[in-house]
Design a protein that fits this description.
single chain; 372 residues; alpha+beta; 6-stranded antiparallel sheet; 14 helices; 6 strands; 58% helix; 11% strand; disordered N terminus
């Protein structure tokens, strides 16, 4: 007679029954249990919200995963949401094995099936770097340099720094690192070789070789009238070159070569921003070019147009004068821009005069009614 407890015997019989009746689900359940145990041992608690479909992927290096994410404090306070970040609803993309700055995302996403939604509560040892990762993602979502606002130092040094990141919630998290909850929805798993490698996942040599093609793709999109897509292509190429430039000493031959590649892309990007009405961004970018290259006529011309668009008449005239000084063949184009600016100024003055006139008569009428 067996001395095993009845509950254990029942459990073993149930396991054999499940394994025989539904081997696929039984195997998946065992895998999920093993995953949960391994994650918990490393300070990660997984909670499945919605099951995925199909079998578990082996996720070899080079696999591309697309997923939406929400990052929250343990009390439920939301930090980031890829569906609303920058108003773009753009999913996160990772290529496994490329050493993403937040390793825990790679660690947890490989425990998921396509279509699955799950919460991962991660210990502070996995989340201390999140403020700098979040800053990069927020900058990218707003079309800014992903390195903007970050010091040229390692992530851990940033965590212990008192440097403001420009966001109160990230400053607070940086000062007081704490566990975070990542809610991931795994949208797509693409095996290696089934997709075109994106520029951020390339080697330095591959990036340099791809820049001319990306530049040309941006030009084609611009000519076809797809301005947002063209801007994104130019921006991706600029961000890539800047990441390479960060590895060089400012002023060195390689740094200068990369900067000369960045400049025309940045000017094209500014042209897209002008058509999208984002004039102050143009002022910033063109000023940065002019500070380095005082003879860049295109930068002066685009900055002059941006100044005119935001009613900086004196600054616009100064930039347009510099354009003619550098290239007299552009005099007719400058005259056209000046006339357009003057027409807009006159129209604005006319509108303001009418507004003040109506305000004056309205005041008189009100006074008459009060004393009548």
């Amino acid at each position: 007679m067996s001395d095993s407890p009845p509950s254990r015997l029942f459990s073993k019989r149930l396991q054999r029954h499940l394994a025989a009746s539904d081997p696929r689900n039984y195997t998946s359940r065992i895998i999920m249990e093993e995953i949960a145990i391994k994650l918990k041992a490393d300070g990660i608690i997984k909670k499945e919200i919605s099951p995925g479909k199909g079998e578990f992927s082996p996720f070899p290096d080079g696999t591309k995963v697309k997923f939406h994410f929400r990052t929250s404090l343990c009390d439920g306070t939301l930090l980031d949401d890829s569906r609303t970040m920058g108003g773009r609803c753009k999913p996160m993309e990772l290529i496994l094995g490329k050493k993403f700055k937040l390793p825990v995302w790679e660690q947890v996403v490989i425990t998921m099936r396509e279509g699955e939604v799950a919460d991962f509560t991660c210990d502070v040892k996995h989340t201390a770097i999140y403020p700098s990762v979040s800053l990069s993602l927020r900058n990218i979502s707003k079309g800014k340099d992903p390195l903007d606002g970050q010091r040229h130092c390692c992530g851990i040094a940033q965590v212990h720094s008192h440097h403001s990141m420009g966001y109160p919630d990230l400053d607070k998290l940086q000062t007081n690192p704490q566990p975070l909850v990542f809610t991931l929805e795994l949208l797509q798993i693409l095996p290696p070789g089934s997709f075109q490698m994106e520029i951020w996942a390339m080697t330095d040599e591959e990036k340099l070789g791809a820049i001319p093609q990306i530049h040309e793709e941006g030009n084609s999109l611009f000519k076809s009238g797809d301005i947002p897509a063209a801007a994104e292509q130019y921006y991706n190429a600029i961000a890539c070159l800047k990441s390479l430039q960060m590895k060089e000493q400012p002023g060195d031959e390689t740094w200068i070569k990369l900067d000369h590649m960045i400049t025309p892309l940045l000017l094209n990007y500014c042209q897209c921003k002008y058509l999208q009405g984002q004039y102050y961004e143009i002022l910033d970018h063109c000023s940065s070019i002019i500070n380095k290259y005082d003879d860049n006529v295109k930068a002066y011309f685009k900055r002059g147009k941006a100044h005119a668009a935001v009613w900086n008449e004196v600054e616009a005239r100064a930039d347009f004068a510099r354009v003619v000084e550098l290239d007299q063949t552009l005099e007719s184009s400058v005259i056209k821009e000046l006339r357009a600016m003057e027409d807009r100024i006159r129209e604005k003055q006319k509108e303001e005069k009418g507004r003040y006139k109506n305000l004056f008569y309205s005041g008189k009428a009100s006074a008459a009614a009060t004393t009548g």
